[in-house]
Design a protein that fits this description.
A hairpin with an 8-residue loop joins strand 6 and strand 7. The protein is an alpha+beta fold. The protein has four helices and eleven strands, in the order H-E-E-E-E-H-E-E-E-E-E-E-E-H-H. The strands form two sheets. Strands 1, 2, 3, 4, 5, 6, 7 and 8 form an eight-stranded mixed β-sheet that branches. Strands 9-10-11 form a three-stranded antiparallel β-sheet. The protein has one domain: Nucleoside Triphosphate Pyrophosphohydrolase (Alpha-Beta Complex), CATH 3.90.79.10.
Length: about 220
């Protein structure tokens, strides 16, 4: 796994693909923060498990801290920083911003407009104790190198009779803590940028979702 210095250098040369202005039908934006720190001599990344809420399309999902861009935020980056502070109590005001990932299009459901999500990468030198909000079920730091371990790569099944499959990564309890979907895609972009691409995995999705995943 590249060191933080090597990650810093990789993102200095990384040119993210941005969606601007928002396309027709994608009138909303969101942003997430990929927070890195060095603990016990290894780079770690911060994940959250979203709280379980009825009607929330991301209920219980593993994710990075983040959320919708509010009118008062002024930018996607500030939205990611505000949400990180609100959700887990980590201030990014003095953190080192390493770079930005490609913008991604998410979706709440196949018949809803796409949501453009921006991702920002930070180095948090002295991470504080996590203070989770009621929007978060759990939050924890996870060794970055472990995300490359083959035994952590699984298929995440969903839909009627679990007939659709996404590539996933187990980062905790295998029944609860599986990273998949948009968060997995951001990890793909991150690891490609630092020269350690994740293995190519087959995706089996409803046809109406295929366009959103690959754009």
């Amino acid at each position: 796994m590249p060191s933080l210095d090597e990650i810093r250098g990789a993102f200095a040369a990384h040119a993210p693909r941005l969606v601007h202005p928002l396309p027709d039908g994608a009138t909303r934006g969101a942003a997430v923060a990929i927070c890195l720190c060095e603990r016990r001599g290894e780079a770690q990344v911060l994940f959250i498990e979203r709280a379980r809420r009825e009607g929330d399309p991301w209920s219980g999902h593993m994710a990075f801290p983040g959320g919708r861009i509010d009118p008062g935020d002024g930018s996607a980056r500030r939205a990611a920083e505000r949400e990180t502070l609100e959700e887990v109590g980590v201030s990014l005001a003095r953190a080192e911003r390493l770079g930005r990932l490609d913008d991604m299009r998410g979706h709440e459901a196949a018949d809803h407009p796409a949501l453009v999500v921006s991702g920002f990468v930070y180095h948090v030198p002295d991470p504080p104790e996590l203070r989770i909000s009621d929007e978060v079920e759990a939050a924890f730091w996870f060794p970055l190198a472990q995300l490359l371990a083959p035994e952590r790569h699984v298929d995440h099944c969903f839909g009627p009779a679990n007939q659709y499959r996404y590539p996933g990564l187990v980062v905790g309890h295998p029944e609860r803590h599986v990273v998949w979907g948009l968060t997995y895609r951001f990890l793909e972009i991150f690891f490609a940028a630092v020269g350690k691409p994740l293995p190519q995995r087959r995706i089996e999705l409803p046809p109406e979702w295929q366009r959103l995943v690959h754009e």
